[in-house]
Specification:
Protein name: Integral membrane protein
Order of helices and strands: HHEEHHHHHHHHHH
Number of strands: 2
Keywords: Membrane, Transmembrane, Transmembrane helix
Largest sheet: 2 strands, antiparallel
Distance between the termini: 66 Å
Helix content: 55-70%
Number of helices: 12
Organism: Streptomyces brasiliensis
Strand content: under 5%
Shape: flat
């Protein structure tokens, strides 16, 4: 284990990234545990307030992210300073992204359906950083040989082609595939060649006069969502807590 850690993490200079990812995940898990206890009225925890103002944990998260980011720039990639900056950055990022939905909607949607977006963003971030730790490099540069890396034309062509595939997948309404495809290019290629999701920019542009393609895209999306949407929601509820039931409008 020690040899693997040195060879794959310490020697390539990835220790700060590992520390940041560990701090990020642990901060998110601890934060969600505390907020769920507050929601249930258990334990000694409570919302932080100053003069009647509820201080969301995104506020200290932003402060820690700024300190950790500038600390990492100032300290370089080695030594105790770099490790400390990485931990502070990971903690800050965990606090910020746990309330990503609040920032997106500019409203306290933590325990609503919209709040699921925070859990989704945290999971995606952790997965992408994990791929970087595993040795993946964006846009497939890590798949090139040493001889190919010496040829700038090959490098540029590889980056541009993989970027285009990711862009096409994104235009087809497959944001997750496009995001992971930037790190694992084969996913971007798969997302680029498959049918677009209904309502996506690609579908609106190219399926407008193709009813059969429109129908096939709708059927594929229906079966995909029916198979995976429920599982994704159950996983999000297990990690971040189940949202509050939606309130029906008062029609009196």
């Amino acid at each position: 284990m020690g040899q693997w850690l040195y060879r794959n993490i310490i020697e390539p200079g990835k220790l700060p990234l590992l520390l940041a990812l560990t701090a990020f995940v642990m901060t998110f898990l601890v934060t969600r545990t505390v907020t769920r206890l507050i929601r249930a009225g258990r334990g000694p925890f409570g919302n932080v307030k100053a003069g009647g103002l509820h201080i969301h944990h995104v506020v200290p998260g932003v402060v820690l992210t700024v300190i950790g980011g500038f600390g990492a720039v100032a300290s370089g990639r080695q030594g105790f300073g770099a490790a400390l900056a990485a931990v502070l950055f990971g903690i800050g990022a965990g606090l910020v992204l746990d309330e990503f939905a609040l920032i997106l909607h500019l409203a306290d949607v933590y325990w609503t359906e919209e709040g699921r977006r925070s859990v989704e963003v945290v999971v995606l971030t952790a997965a992408l950083v994990g791929l970087l730790l595993a040795g993946f490099v964006p846009f497939g540069v890590n798949d090139l040989t040493q001889d190919e890396l010496q040829d700038r034309g090959t490098v540029v062509a590889t980056v541009v082609s993989n970027f285009v595939f990711s862009l096409v997948a994104l235009s087809k309404g497959k944001a997750r595939t496009a995001l992971f495809g930037a790190v694992v290019p084969v996913l971007a290629l798969v997302g680029a060649v498959r049918l677009a999701r209904p309502g996506s920019p690609w579908a609106k542009r190219f399926y407008r006069s193709r009813p059969r393609a429109r129908a096939r895209a709708g059927l594929r999306a229906y079966h995909h969502d029916r198979r995976w949407a429920g599982r994704a929601r159950a996983f999000q509820d297990w990690i971040g807590g189940k949202p509050d039931p939606a309130r029906l409008p008062d029609r009196r």
